[in-house]
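INFO  loader      accepted 1 record
INFO  loader      residues=199
INFO  predictor   begin
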Amino acid sequence: MEIQGPAGWLEARHDVAPIEKTITTVLCHPHPQYGGSMHDAVLETATQEFLKVGANCLRFNFRGVGGSDGAYDGNGGEVDDLAAAIAWAREEYPRDKLWLAGYSFGANVVWQALKRESCAVERALLIAPPVGMMSFETGGGTHTDRLQAIAGSADDFVDQATFTGWDGVETHVLQGADHFFGGHHDVLAAQIAALLADD
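INFO  predictor   done
INFO  writer      dumping tokens
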């Protein structure tokens, strides 16, 4: 399927949960310039856990990735792409609660989107947010009721002190996991499941 984005059409995939609970989660993939796409394995792991709790999932490729029009922007363009995906979800499923999830670069895009009132959501999950490598400005707050983050203790792209002391964010550290959760996808899945179970 395709979604109309600010730079053209965005390639997307919409997965329907076996038991729907009027929730839609929009998920953002890792860095486009390093092979990131909506088919990323970590994003697939997260998608399966959201589907299990009844949340429909919308994944999409940022501009210039896969079948999406345009080219990598890196200066807010990908945030605009996410805003377009959010707008699509709201139009198609107006009764649904809206959740966001992002992995690595995608987590940074989610963070930037949450600074916009127009992108306000009920819940957001940041997976391996590269704090210390990318800007996660804390001023102005975020437009979400609940903000959680997961990172591995062996993640070279995450400053552990900054992550664990992140004001306003509920953080969870997976011991021994690196940025790609190699050998830890089952642990990541269990952590996401535990977070979603207390909704």
